[in-house]
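Subject: Protein record for review, amino acid sequence with backbone structure tokens
How to read it: Take the token row as a discrete description of the fold.
Enclosed: The protein record, placed directly beneath this head.
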Amino acid sequence: MRADLIVNYNTAAADAAARGVVAQLSELETSLQKTVATLNVNPKILRNMALSQNYMSYYKARDSGLRKIAERQYHAHRGAVDEKVHPGYRADILNAALSPDGRGLINYGAVTLELQDIAIRDRASVMRENAFNFYERYNLGRKDAQEAPGWRSTWSDRARLGVAHLEPAITTAIARNDIAKLILFSGPNRDDDRYMEVQIFGELSWQSLSKVSLEKPLTDSNERDDWDFACHKLRNLSIRVADLTYP
């Protein structure tokens, strides 16, 4: 899809020039070039990773007995979306978020995993939005429905994809903080989250981690114990750990 992606990118650049927001778009592109992949989990999953259990897809974790099946209606819809978006490979795909600063989507878990670029760059692609919204945008549930080309990219082309996707939201009055929020916004609930999805083939080990951050206070004592245990193990493995819940 790279040729179509370049067309979309050039169209966005021309539109930005016509609207007088070239400087703002340039700042957006610079931010996108520095983005990292983040994935949010609960402290128990982090503990398991610290004990050398790989993080795996929903399907593989379910089949291995590591997690329960989702509610039937959600499970069925998720299966339909993932099979349409990744035909034949849905069981091998992990979904992460593109982040401008290493912060994540806390509606999916209190702990944010920041992934090393070198651990994913050869097995990751990026989509303009999360797979559910992408599926609905192009009505992919219809027989023979096709997505518009050029709205996915390789990891190295993520900045071009972000420019093409986010340029319409750029204005002359946009603040620097708001540019970052265009890339990733963690809302009050999952329906309010806005982000570009990173889709990673395979599993993740603790060696894939660049940093782990606690972004939401833990009120459950078992979760706090899991977090403290994982922190101790990961620090000994030279993984950066941050508790962002303190003022």
